[in-house]
Every structure is written in structure tokens, then in C-alpha cells.
């Protein structure tokens, strides 16, 4: 018998069991899905920086590089986003054929099943490049390789299922989609009303045990063209054909869309994006049990399977598209600000432009850093569930801010739609990324910290499992062991947080990282402060913290910043501590530290237990939130990274889709290079107070060749500044029927006069 367990732990155990809220099966399965990784170090309050720096950077094989230089570049050259949006409302037939032929749908499927067998990083790079040319094409390629039947079959399918379906998915004979969202159940999957009743029926000429399915799904990407539907539903066994339990839970199965009872609906038009998306229904659709992914033994395990797959997919698909959008915004907005003049000078010289431009640049740097770090984990076989939630949430949110900033700087150029507007469709696409794969409001308020607090905390999950153990004595023994380790951990965290906060992190652990060493020290400081405040919130609120969504969101913001800032530091280290890029790193750090300080202050101001809040304030924020954000010097240096052709600009915006055509982006790239090349010539003319290059040649200020070069640059700038216009008849069928807009309004005027 243990004196500590029986005297001290037992009453605490009894109290905790009484207040612990019940956890639903879907909540437990979501928590158990995926892995913990660097997020656990950050949650510990004492991150081991050597672990981060020793993560092998994500790289591409020669075969993957060849695919990016070959089929991906060829696909990008085939794409015209304006025609896809305005004329075709779909990818053209030759593009669909090319995507299937080159196995874009089978990037993640192993070679043994006819796929390309690419790494998560290669998948990310492919999506990233295509999305800078066409959102519709990127989403089309992205979805089958993230959350879909292919991923689920690879992880959970039987050998027979893999051998049957994966080759067909790899070579495009089958186009997949996945049906999860219902009108009744979006984020709340437990409310799903789609059902599968286990019964006997005839299938392909023989009687088998199977499922009779009824469902209604919507928002299903590739749904209107899919030949193989992955379906989530609730399985029931009322006749006990497979066991004693009647309600089996959420299950996933494969449904060939040609089966009787399957109804493919019309198309949705998500935020004017024309990738294939739409509803579907099933009415009394019968499938054999071997169509359940994983077979009979996987009945009722669908939610855990989905959450495990999502832990990988959420870290690749939308973060890749978002990082690409930020990089594209940085490259185009820097170039446009450089060549566009107002009041006789480049608008890039205005500090009002520099501020949002710096934000675009630094965000592009940080998002791609986080994308690469997350892909490195996925390449190593880790499926970081909490990190994937952070990535989806913050990549899409920061893309929204970045694209808004780019639109502001471009002004009317980005507002007027047409073939020459290279930002318009990206702007329209932002709400799609914000909404899908888990709405951002839900992810921020409930998932990041809610899941992270349990999974990434060193002891909390062990304590919860002990409290939920049906064997009380075994649970007490396990709780005793975990609880006192938790107490020791909390005391250590208290000491770390106190010492690091009162010394401004001057002596906090940090690797020798040159100029960046100071940033590691601050992250060590904030990690300890975060861990202590999280522990105290959990202690004082218990299960009620689950309902304090605003507090949970603030904790989640801090954990997210710690991860994203870690990724930026990792990138700077991996790229050889490039001095030119340090301004982008400084901007990220200053902005992230300001967010952390503000969120800590908000948590302490709103923590219900005011006594604990006052004590925490003295420990973690004794001198108030004093971080102001990036200085004007940093803003200026950061914005300057994209205003001239340079290695730094290319590092910031690598591997975008560059097609040498007459599109708006290609025109901008040519004009930018010409303006940069002729800058010295233009300065000599300004110094001589001459605006006409021919006059400058006559006066000997510049040579004839220089004048012609300058004229070419000015002509290129004029073509960039141009915006599209359309004949009225091209925009509205009304005018086609009446002989033109003028005749239409003339007749309208005559009708009014007659009346």
C-alpha cells in the first residue's frame, strides 16, 4: 500500500472523477488520431532546440524534381485561369486527360500500385506551383492526394481493396471524391444522419451481408465527376448480423457511383471558383461489407480513420496553396510597387506602401518556413494532428491578410477583372480556404488548444485516461503516478517562467544561432509562460475550460505563434543564415512576440480565478505587455527584399509557375526586369530634368541604345498598368438581342417617351 496514493491522491482522484466532463466517442477518436511532435516540446515549457534544428529538412528526389520541371510545368502552360473561370467554367478536356495520364491523382499512391510514390513534400511542391497558375487546377489535383479514398485505402484498406482500387485511382480510371459534410452536420460530425443498415441482399447475383445506405452530402469536391465516392455514415446492426452491438458508429466505405440509388447532383459554385464541387445523394444503395474501407473489422472506426488521414492532409493541401498565394502576392506586389509611379516617384518609396508590403514579404517567408517544417515531419512518417490544425488555420488566415494587402497596393489594377488581372481569382478563392477542412472559427476556438492541451501536454492525457478507467483501483494507481509527475512538472515550469520573465529571457536556453540567438531565448521564455498559464487554467477551470472558447482561442494563438516562429528560425538556419533575409525573420519575431504578449495579457485579464490571475501576472508578465512590433527600420528593410531582382527575392518566392506568354503575370515580370535594368538611365534623365528620352539623347545625357532600352521599359510598364475592358455585348446577352447597348437604351428611351 502507498501512503501518498491512499492519503493524498485518493481524495484528489475522487474529486477529479466527479468533475471530469464526459468525452464523446468522436472527441476521443479525434484526440487519439495523429501524433504529437514539436508541439509537445513547446507545450512542455522547455523546448529542446537541438531537436528542432536536427530535423532533416524536406527535400525532393531527382524523380520528383523532374516531375516538377516536366509534367507540372507542362500542365501550367496549358492553363488559362481566366478562360477556365469565364469561358469554360471547368478545366478543358485536354487538361483533364493530361492530369490523368501523368498520374497527378496518384502522386501519393505507392509505385507498386501504379502511383508515383511521391513524398508529402513533393505533393506540397506540386500543389504550390500549380496554384500560382490556376486555383481550379490546384484544387483538382490536391483533393485526391489529401483527404480521400486513396489516403484511407493506403492506411486502412485490406490488401484486396488496395490491389483492386489503388491502381484505378493512380491512373485516373477512377476519379475519387469523399463525402463527409451533410446539410445537418458540418463541423459536428456526430450529428450526421446518413445511415448504413447492415442486412442481407443480392449483389452481383449472389446474396451477401452488406449495408443499405441512405445519405445526403454537399460541398463535395470532385463530386460531380467522381466515379468512386468515399462515404462517411453511421452504421447500425439492428439484426445483429455481425455482433451484439446495434449502434456501430461512424464508418467509411467505397461507393462506385454507377450503383443503383446513387444520385449525383448539380454543381456548386464556391466563391466563383469553378473546380468541380457539388452535392450527392444515395437512396437505398446496397454494398457488400467488403466495400467498407478496412473490411468488417473497421465498422465504426471511421471517425478515427478520418481524423488520422486529416492529420496529414490538413498539413499539406491548403497550407501549400496558402504559402503559394503569399509568395505570389509578394513577388507581384513588390514588382508592381517598384514599376508603378505616382507623384513622380515609385509607390514603393511611400512608407504607407512599405508597411503592408513588409507584412506580405514576412508572411510569405513564415508560411513557407512552416510548410517546409511540417512537410519534414510528414516525410519522416509523423502525422502531427495539432500542428496540422495550426497550419490550416493560420496559413489560410494569413493568406487572407496577404491578399488583402496586395489588393490595396495594386488598387484599381487588381479590382478590374479580366485576363490581365493576376490577383482577382486568388482574392475570390480566399473564403474557400477559410471554410473547408474545418472552419477556422471552430479550429481556433476549440481544436488547436483543446486538442493540444490534451495531446501535447506531458501528463494530462495519462491523467484523463486514468480517471476514465472502469477499474477504479487501476485508475487510481495510474493517476497517482501521472498526477505527481504533473505536480513536479508544474513546479519546474513555475521556476522557469518566473526566472525567464523577470530577466526578459536573458539566460533562457538557446542554441548558438548568431544574430538569431536572442529570438530562441525569447521563445524559451514564452514557452514557459504559456505552459504555466495553461496548467493553471486547466487546474482552476477543469472541464469548464472547454466552454471558455475565447480563453481557449487565446491559448491556441500562443501555441500557434510558438510553432510558426520556430519554423521561421528553422528556415533561417537551414538556408545558411542569409544576412539579406534577416529583416523578414526580425519582422516575424517582433510581430509574433507582440501577439504572444497581448494574448497573455488578455488571458490574465479574463481568467475567472482572479487570485490565480494576479499571481500569474507577477510571474509571467511583471512589466506588462511591452512588445511594440517591428520597427520602421525592419519594415523598410523587409519591404526592400522584393523591390529589386536579387537572390533574396528568389529565395522568398521560389518555384512559382512562370509561363512565357502574354498573361498579366508574365507582362509584370518582364516590366520589372526592364525597369530595374534601366533605373540608372532614368536617374540620369531625372537629374537633368528631362522626361523625353529622345531629348535626352539629343543633349548627350544618354545614348541612343539606352534611350531605346528605356522606351521598351516604359512601354512594358504601360502594358502592365492597362486593365481589361469588354464590349457590352460580350458581358450581357441582353445587348446581343437588341443590336447593341446604344440601340437598347435608345429603344428604352423611346418607350418611356411614348408612355
TrEMBL record:
Highest taxon, organism lineage: Bacteria
Reactions mediated catalytically: a long-chain 2,3-saturated fatty acyl-CoA + oxidized [electron-transfer flavoprotein] + H(+) = a long-chain (2E)-enoyl-CoA + reduced [electron-transfer flavoprotein]; a medium-chain 2,3-saturated fatty acyl-CoA + oxidized [electron-transfer flavoprotein] + H(+) = a medium-chain (2E)-enoyl-CoA + reduced [electron-transfer flavoprotein]
Cofactor(s) the record lists: FAD
EC assignment: 1.3.8.7, 1.3.8.8
Domain Acyl-CoA dehydrogenase C-terminal bacterial-type span(s) in chain numbering: 454-726
UniProt key word Lipid metabolism: no
Family matches, as SUPFAM superfamilies: Acyl-CoA dehydrogenase C-terminal domain-like, Acyl-CoA dehydrogenase NM domain-like
Domain Acyl-CoA dehydrogenase/oxidase N-terminal: 79-172
Gene Ontology BP terms: fatty acid beta-oxidation using acyl-CoA dehydrogenase
Limits of the Acyl-CoA dehydrogenase/oxidase C-terminal domain: 300-447
Family membership: Belongs to the acyl-CoA dehydrogenase family.
Protein name as annotated: Acyl-coenzyme A dehydrogenase
Native source organism of the sequence: Bradyrhizobium centrolobii
Amino acid at each position: 500500500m502507498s501512503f501518498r496514493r491512499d492519503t493524498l491522491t485518493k481524495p484528489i482522484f475522487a474529486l477529479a472523477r466527479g468533475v471530469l466532463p464526459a468525452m464523446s466517442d468522436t472527441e476521443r477518436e479525434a484526440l487519439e488520431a495523429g501524433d504529437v511532435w514539436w508541439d509537445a516540446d513547446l507545450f512542455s515549457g522547455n523546448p529542446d532546440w537541438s531537436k528542432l534544428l536536427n530535423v532533416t529538412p524536406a527535400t525532393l528526389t531527382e524523380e520528383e524534381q523532374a516531375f516538377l520541371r516536366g509534367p507540372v510545368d507542362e500542365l501550367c502552360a496549358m492553363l488559362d485561369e481566366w478562360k477556365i473561370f469565364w469561358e469554360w467554367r471547368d478545366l478543358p478536356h485536354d487538361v483533364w486527360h493530361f492530369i490523368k495520364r501523368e498520374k497527378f491523382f496518384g502522386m501519393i499512391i505507392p509505385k507498386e500500385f501504379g502511383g508515383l510514390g511521391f513524398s508529402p513534400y513533393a505533393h506540397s511542391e506540386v500543389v504550390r506551383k500549380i496554384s500560382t497558375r490556376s486555383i481550379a487546377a490546384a484544387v483538382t489535383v490536391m483533393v485526391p492526394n489529401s483527404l480521400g479514398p486513396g489516403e484511407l485505402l493506403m492506411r486502412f484498406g485490406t490488401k484486396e481493396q488496395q490491389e483492386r482500387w489503388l491502381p484505378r485511382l493512380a491512373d485516373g480510371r477512377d476519379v475519387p471524391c469523399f463525402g463527409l459534410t451533410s446539410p445537418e452536420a458540418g463541423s459536428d460530425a456526430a450529428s450526421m444522419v446518413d445511415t448504413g443498415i447492415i442486412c442481407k441482399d443480392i449483389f452481383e447475383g449472389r446474396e451477401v451481408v452488406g449495408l443499405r445506405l441512405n445519405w445526403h452530402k454537399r460541398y463535395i469536391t470532385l463530386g460531380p465527376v467522381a466515379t468512386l465516392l468515399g462515404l462517411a455514415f453511421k452504421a447500425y446492426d439492428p439484426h445483429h448480423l455481425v455482433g451484439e452491438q446495434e449502434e456501430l458508429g461512424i464508418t467509411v466505405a467505397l461507393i462506385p457511383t454507377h450503383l443503383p440509388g446513387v444520385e449525383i447532383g448539380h454543381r456548386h459554385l464556391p466563391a466563383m471558383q469553378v473546380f468541380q464541387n457539388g452535392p450527392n445523394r444515395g437512396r437505398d444503395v446496397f454494398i457488400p461489407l467488403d466495400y467498407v474501407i478496412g473490411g468488417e473489422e473497421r465498422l465504426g472506426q471511421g471517425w478515427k480513420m478520418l481524423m488520422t488521414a486529416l492529420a496529414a492532409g490538413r498539413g499539406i493541401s491548403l497550407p501549400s496553396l496558402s504559402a503559394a498565394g503569399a509568395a505570389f502576392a509578394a513577388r507581384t506586389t513588390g514588382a508592381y510597387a517598384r514599376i508603378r509611379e505616382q507623384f513622380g516617384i515609385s509607390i514603393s518609396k511611400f512608407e504607407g506602401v512599405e508597411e503592408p508590403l513588409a507584412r506580405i514579404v514576412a508572411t510569405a517567408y513564415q508560411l513557407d518556413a512552416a510548410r517546409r517544417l511540417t512537410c519534414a515531419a510528414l516525410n519522416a512518417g509523423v502525422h502531427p494532428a495539432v500542428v496540422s490544425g495550426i497550419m490550416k488555420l493560420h496559413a489560410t488566415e494569413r493568406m487572407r491578410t496577404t491578399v488583402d494587402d496586395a489588393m490595396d497596393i495594386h488598387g484599381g489594377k487588381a479590382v478590374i477583372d479580366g485576363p490581365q488581372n493576376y490577383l482577382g481569382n486568388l482574392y475570390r478563392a480566399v473564403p474557400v480556404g477559410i471554410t473547408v477542412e474545418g472552419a477556422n472559427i471552430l479550429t481556433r476556438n476549440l481544436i488547436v488548444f483543446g486538442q493540444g492541451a490534451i495531446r501535447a501536454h506531458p501528463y494530462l492525457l495519462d491523467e484523463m485516461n486514468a480517471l476514465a478507467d472502469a477499474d477504479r483501483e487501476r485508475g487510481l494507481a495510474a493517476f497517482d503516478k501521472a498526477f505527481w509527475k504533473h505536480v513536479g512538472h508544474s513546479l519546474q515550469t513555475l521556476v522557469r517562467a518566473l526566472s525567464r520573465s523577470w530577466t526578459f529571457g536573458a539566460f533562457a536556453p538557446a542554441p548558438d544561432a548568431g544574430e538569431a540567438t536572442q529570438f530562441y531565448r525569447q521563445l524559451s521564455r514564452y514557452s514557459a509562460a504559456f505552459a504555466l498559464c495553461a496548467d493553471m487554467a486547466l487546474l482552476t477551470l477543469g472541464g469548464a475550460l472547454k466552454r471558455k472558447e475565447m480563453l481557449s482561442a487565446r491559448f491556441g494563438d500562443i501555441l500557434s505563434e510558438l510553432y510558426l516562429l520556430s519554423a521561421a528560425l528553422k528556415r533561417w538556419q537551414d538556408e545558411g543564415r542569409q544576412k539579406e533575409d534577416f529583416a523578414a525573420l526580425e519582422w516575424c519575431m517582433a510581430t509574433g512576440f507582440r501577439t504572444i504578449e497581448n494574448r497573455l495579457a488578455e488571458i490574465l485579464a479574463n481568467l475567472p480565478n482572479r487570485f490565480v490571475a494576479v499571481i500569474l501576472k507577477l510571474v509571467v508578465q511583471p512589466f506588462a505587455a511591452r512588445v511594440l512590433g517591428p520597427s520602421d527600420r525592419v519594415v523598410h528593410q523587409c519591404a526592400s527584399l522584393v523591390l529589386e531582382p536579387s537572390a533574396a527575392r528568389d529565395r522568398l518566392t521560389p518555384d512559382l509557375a512562370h509561363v512565357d506568354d502574354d498573361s498579366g503575370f508574365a507582362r509584370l515580370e518582364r516590366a520589372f526586369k526592364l525597369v530595374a535594368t534601366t533605373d540608372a538611365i532614368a536617374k540620369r534623365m531625372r537629374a537633368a530634368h528631362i522626361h523625353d528620352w529622345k531629348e535626352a539623347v539629343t543633349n548627350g545625357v544618354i545614348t541612343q541604345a539606352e534611350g531605346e532600352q528605356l522606351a521598351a521599359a516604359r512601354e512594358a510598364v504601360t502594358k502592365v498598368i492597362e486593365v481589361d475592358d469588354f464590349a457590352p455585348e460580350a458581358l450581357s446577352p441582353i445587348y446581343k438581342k437588341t443590336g447593341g447597348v446604344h440601340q437598347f437604351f435608345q429603344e428604352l428611351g423611346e418607350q418611356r417617351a411614348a408612355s
